[in-house]
Please model this.
Amino acid sequence: MSGNSAILLAMAIPLAGAVLIALNAKRPNLREAITLGTAGLLFIDVLTLLPEVAAGGRPSFTLIEMLPGLPLAFEVEPLGMLFGLVASGLWIVNSIYSIGYMRANKEQNQTRFYVCFAVAIASTLGIAFAGNMMTLFVFYEALTLSTYPLVTHKGNEDARRGGRTYLGILLSTSIGLQLLAILWTWQVAGTLDFTVGGILNGKVSGPVVGILLLLYMYGIGKAALMPLHRWLPAAMVAPTPVSALLHAVAVVKAGVFTVMKVAVYIFGIDFLRESGHGQWLAYIAAATILIASLVAMTKDNLKARLAYSTVSQLSYIVLGAALATSWSVIGGSMHIAMHAMGKITLFFCAGAIYTATHKTEISEMTGLGRIMPITFGAFLIGALSIIGLPPMGGSWSKWYLALGAAESGQIVMIAVLMISSLLNVAYLIPIVARGFFQPAPGHAHEPAQEPSSAGAAAAPRTGSAGKIREAPTLCVVALCLTASGCILLFFFADPLYRLLEPIAVP
Amino acid sequence: MAVGIVRLDNLLAVVMLSGIYSLISASLFVTMDAVDVAFTEASVGGGIATVLMLATLALTGDTEKPGKGKLQIVPLAAVTITGALLIYGTLDMPSFGDPMAAIHQHVAPRYIEEAPKTTGIPNIVTSVLASYRGYDTMGELAVIFTAGIGVILILGSGRRRDD
Amino acid sequence: MFFAAILAILVTMSLALTRALLGPTVYDRVLAVNSFGTKTVLLIALLGFLTDRPDFLDIGLVYALINFIGTIAVLKLLKYGNLGTAVRELERNP
Amino acid sequence: MDIPGLFNYWIVIFLMMTGFYVVIARGNLVKKIVGLNIFQTSVFILYISMGKVEDGTAPIVIEGAKGVGAVYSNPLPHVLILTAIVVGIATTALGLALIVRIKEAYGTVEEDDIFAQDEAE
Amino acid sequence: MIAANLPALQIVLPLIAAPLCLLLRRGNLAWALALFVSLAAFAIAVALLTQVLDSGAISYELGGWAPPWGIEYRVDVLNAFVLLIVAAIGAVVLAYARRSVAQEVPTSQHSGFYTAFLLCLTGLLGVAITGDAFNLFVFLEISSLSSYVLISMGRDRRALTAAFQYLVMGTIGATFIVIGIGLLYMSTGTLNMADLGARLPAIGANRTVLAAFAFLTVGATIKLALFPLHFWLPNAYAYAPSAVTAFLASTATKVSIYILLRFFFTVFGPTFEAEEITLNNLVVPLATIAVLVCSTVAIYQGNVKRMLAYSSIAQIGYMMIGIGFGTVTGLTAGIAHLFNHAVTKGGLFLVLGCIVWRIGSCRLGDLAGLGRRMPLTMFAFVLGGLSLIGVPLTAGFVSKWVLVQAAIEQGNWLVAVAILAGSLLALIYVWRVVEVAYLRPAPDSAPEAAEAPWSMLIPAWILIGASIYFGVETSLSLGVAEAAARFLLGGAG
Amino acid sequence: MQILLDTLSWLLLIGGSAFAVIGAVGLIRFPDVYSRMHAAGMTDTLGAGLILAGLMVQGGFTLVTVKLALILVFLLYTSPTSTYALANAAYSRGLQPLLGKRDTGAPPPSAPETEPS
Amino acid sequence: MLRAISLGLVLFGIWLLISGIYTPLLISLGAVSCLAVVGIAHRMDVVDHEGHPIHLGWRALTYWMWLTVEIVKANIDVARRILDPKLPIDPAVVTVKASQDSELGHVIFANSITLTPGTVSMRVAENTILVHAIATDMAEDVQSGAMDRRVTAMEGTVQTHLKDAS
Amino acid sequence: MPMIQRHSILRVTTKLLTPFILMFALYVQFHGDFGPGGGFQAGVIFGAGFILYALIYGIEAAEKVAPPGIIRVVMTLGLLLYIGVGYFGMFLGGAFLDYNVLRQDPVQGQHLGITLVELGVGTTVAATMITIFFSFAGRMRRAGRSG
Model:
């Protein structure tokens, strides 16, 4: 299969899947089979691209010329390859998990759910493989719009409000700031094609660079740089699989991926570094890392805590871009994969806990670890990866980031990384500890305990009432897979590094 | 008189005054050699328009709500500005009746010269109206036709419908 | 010569106009308007002679006619508040 | 600049603006239409006055010896205004028809009463 | 013979069909005739555009009289494009109209309705095609008068007041245009627009010409409902029958913009100094305010039709911004947006018509739960809404992209930001509808609603589909728009 | 001959004008509608008649004269008719004429027949 | 029928008189026009003794002459009153007997009264006409019946079948 | 003695005048080429004559003379005549509304064209005026009934 058609297929497969899913709305089993099949096919398709890219090839494909000089074009480069692999690979796992989750919770509108999911993945791959900023922007918007129905899935007032915040922040930043930045870039550089070394390099100078950088960074709302992070906790009204894949992987990673792309291909890391404007961006990122971690500690709702954790972790990647050294860029890019794997595990666990017990607050989870050992075990692994302890994948990316900070002489940043790791420990480990080491309170299994805010639409758990067991098998399988992924990434970090090397060392 | 139209509350009187206005302007048209126009203005402005307005008054009552006679500032300003603009525009206009004005130099002479010969009728206005600018006249006819259709659609045709 | 007559007519017209503006009753206005119309007919006729193109008397004729119709319409409206029904019918059942 | 030569325009403009004022300032719909009429008629006069040629005569060819060397006024404005008059009467008719229906629907032909009723809905 | 007379046929075909429609007493027959004729007009427009693109402007002398003595039809890229828009929208809306009109207009008035509709079409086409200033006025009046009639046929009594208001404003606007034309004629002695364009530079910007310019601008501005003079529009659109709203919204104001373009660039020429001053200092700020204010007002509308009407005013603002820049990019953006918005807004109003047809209302609250009950319709609305917002891959995006580019080119950052802000406001008002339709459950008392009939849905989807298509394939819209812009700027200067 | 005709038409025109002006003065001076009608009638009949006659003399035996005559006839037909209609309308809508010293015993105008318009 | 023909002839005569252009085309157009008008008039039912009173014949002419003299006299009278600074008017409303048999006669009488300045007919009833006069002596003039007699005379023989049932 | 009102004056005058008005309208129609006037003016006068008749004799009588349906058809016929002349010119190889080709001699062709076109104008205008008046008066009658 040639690379070119593979690129097209990467978007066509999920879209075709979406159509098939929509057509089989009345047959849930077939529908879900299609979902899984599509996911598998997609992953294989993306994998076929890997050898060529790893060998230094840049498969490309131009769909149409949307505006004169501005085609919808695709080009696969290492960063996109990585992102595409992560997204498509995790989609399989997530699909398995979703099926278990959705069925167990008897959610409404499942067909719409799967359709939008497939469309969102298609958009994500579009972002990953985009060959120019315009194409990226198009799919960026498509991703926002296709995930909106997922966020508001429950359809109640809460979900609507969350959806409004989500859409409001993401679209207004992208249209108001990012698009402006893109236009400006187009005006200045005359092209939007991603070019190694940056297209703005030498075209602008002085404060304009700063303004443009600001526009881009805040325009990419999905990167959740403070203070434009509000949408991410708001999006937690979505069902957990959505939070897991989209708000741990696809959407937020699309954001930071775009940040990376902009840093590497629009500004060019050398240019960015030399202009000195990366500096303040690094400070903002650092501040976000710390503040979000602190906020995370105050959250009792598990998903909210994870959400703030995500905000914090995303800024690692932004930091990587802002430092603009080869190490930091590689570290940041690697963190896309590492954090994805870790965070999806954590969200899967949260969803599993919810499915099994209908509990959302951390304070209620005492003693659950003994009843759901696999879930909590996986949670521990994920948490360790996020914290950055070996032998988890997360340790590598933090290591490279720290190296990058050292390379640029930013000792403060190393300190920030360290403090942040400590904070991670402080807000993640207690959950595990509480689950394993504290005894369960007597009334823990009362379904009436369920907070009203959590899923009014969710059907009460049927079957053996009061008896808490592990979550549905499909959920557990999925979270085991990702947990082992975290460990695997530690051992197979080298290929990743080699894949990413070309972007940092032009 | 125009002021009278502004001030009067009695719509009937207003309508009649507007009829007079038409008559006056028609006389002016005659003095300015526009006999065809005067003809039309007389028959339309003085006749049909008045009758239609009366018919409307018969249906809607003929007194205006009182107490609205005082001048309103915003419209007055708009009017003043427009008027000032027009007067400003007149400053570069050719004097009244100046035969050397541009308007009489370019297109018109040929009509006067040629129209009677090519169309064989002495009334230049008619020949320009129906032939040189016959297309305008067709448009005009379409306009009046539209008005007819419109009135039928809005008011129903005269024939009683049992609805 | 015609000019003098025109002047006279103009004076007449302005007097009629004054009456039309003064009112006080609607009937006064109608009367003034009607009178005004007649004067206009004369004016047109005189103007035709003044400009040496007396062949436009058709306009005067139209004036007289239109003026008449207008007046009748006004009066019918004034008297009956209705324009569509036959006079005879209106008289039978007022 | 020949101010007296422009005087005619100014009178026309005054009339025009009076009509215009009636249209936009008066609340009675019938009066608006009357104002519109006056406004348009004044424009007609403006046109015709620009078509007048001094010592000219109506643009109808005089047959025979009398017509030799006659100066005719510009016929084109006349043609245009004929068309414009027709447009004017068409507009008037439509406007009046609408007024009749408005009266039937609202019971009034005063603009502010109508607005008040619309607001109340 | 037919090929040579295409420009005339473009207008005269619908015109002769109009009285014939009236003679056909049966509404359905009238509809069939109207549809047939509008399709023919569309075909002619396509033929004209290709012809113009191939071989340059076409001139057609009506009555065989050479211009400037006779009336000339002059088809160049710009008006061939406008003709295409009008004819296409006309054809689609007519195809759509049958069911919609059958519901909203009494049966006895059907043939009259289609007559008026065809007259309106004729008028708009006539305005677009003519090369004679006064002829433009005449056809403008044909279209205006018939649109007053069409608007007044709405079921709500407010349709009457709306039509009346429109009548008064429209007549004032048209009279202003007449004054302007008269003053121009006075200064040059000609009425042919090309001839005017050739003669005006010699006269220069004397006061009469300036006044003419002012009157034409204000008159056209009233007609196209630029911001401070827009107040007649929302009611007119909101209470007219659905098909009429769709047709007028996507054509009438566009044709008015065309008038403005024509006068600005062909008659006065792009270098006319007063024009530059006006454009930059008056039109652009006003248009920008229009975008912001009217988008904001649209957010607060409880009636979706009204909302879209305000949105139209805002979108007109975009076009005027583009035109106001007076550069190739700006004009391209303005003209392309003219096209894109016509397609999009036409589609949206048609979709709305489907909704009204089904549930008899277009109040926001009544749309609850429609996403489930009329999925195809609502999905079309979402797509159209996206185009209105200017999301990439929709037509709305393309023209806004070029527009912002034009703003940046001029260094006018404020306007660029305002354009983007306008998009965000559009997002808000579109999303209010989407949220209600998809996320709010239908009240139990809601009437049983199913999809609208295919005869309505398909035309609506054609336009919505087109608005997506032209977001992806831009060579037609942008290409022609750019050619037109170049023509306007280069052809007369 | 020509001089004679000119003088004649002169006299007619002057006379007509005089009557017209006097009638108009009457239109202003008279106290109520009914009496003003008489003044208006004056201009309509003799004023118009004399002026038209004067013009006819000018026109000689041509089309113009025929048209003038037609106008005159027309005026003589319509003028009393409209005056009558006016008087009738005013009277039947209850407009009381101002009366002189002597009461002639005429019936009072009837009450308004229809609702006020 | 006869009246229709005569109406057509009269119309055509007037056409010829005012047309001034005697090409075959226009004359034939004129003839067609007159025919059309007669047709419409017939449909309108206005071609009868009232609408087209040719039966009055020459008597009308003599009556007109007399009336003209009356009008001139009355005009001078009213003019005097207007110009007199004292404005010697003395309005009166009187009833005048109308002895004509046909409505047409009434009409002629009433219009004659109106045409004569100083008197205006205000209401035509069965056999009387209500007249407003500017001065009492004028009212008395009308009441004297001179005009009434002349109109009746002009009307000539009584045409009973024409009584209108209004 | 009760005074029975009679409106013979108005009726009789109208009867007398109507045919002349109509004739005059046609005169204006056909003499527009030579003097002031033309189709439009003729149409208006014709309409006015008819309106006078309708004023005095009532709409019912007027509608009997000219049924609204027929008037409506006449209205379209005038416009069709105009456009038809235009088309005819086109079929004969000229431009739209080219009268030169109507006859061998262009001058005669022009004359013919103008006459026909003016006739079309007159027809439509007269019919439209009558229609508009009928519509207004019809409303009045309806309003009078209900009120």
Observations:
- Confidence is low (pLDDT under 50) at residues 443-466 of chain A.
- The longest helix of chain A spans residues 157-189.
- Chain A has one domain: 3-442+469-504.
- The beta strands of chain A are 60-67, 70-75.
